[in-house]
Amino acid sequence: MDVMTAVLTRRSEHRLVEPSPSMEELTYLLKAASCAPDHGRLRPWRWLLVSGDDRRALGEVMAECNGKSVESMVAKTHRAPLLAGLVLSPDPRSRVPEWEQLAAATGMVTSLMLLLHARGFGSIWRTGEQADAAPMRRFLSVDEHERALGWLYMGTPVRDGSVARRRQPVDIGSRLQVFSAPNDVEPELVSARR
Question: What protein family does this chain belong to (predicted)?
Fold first, then answer.
């Protein structure tokens, strides 16, 4: 699949089943995704993978974070066979500002989602207050300087026979401007240069 097709056909997949990427394939895809723009090549992120019965423990912590029922949160963690928690782990000693390190992490996630899609897998990015709540931080051993950003659910999309429609690129005309430097030069100086 070429890059343009991947961009125009990728969708957040709400129904995901086995198979999910193997550890070997996910590692390969993450190596490629980590080539996303990253000032200083800091790789200011880390992933925490949850699958199988461990999804129940994750659901229990989600329930503790948001006050919803354990069973409803466990059901959510079973929407995909593999969940990957993304933790922003900025380098506080770096001269690269934290916002730019966050941008590197989000660029890497976008690349990973496109790579998964190109391989026939589906994914959906899920966030919420519980992602970085205190019980979740303890559960995932998130350090004080880190932030848990959200969860990438991965698996094989359930197809109902319909073909995924290509996204139609939107008109960005109102969001694109050609910059022209202001003309602050005095008229007499302009004429003197002629």
Answer: Belongs to the nitroreductase family.
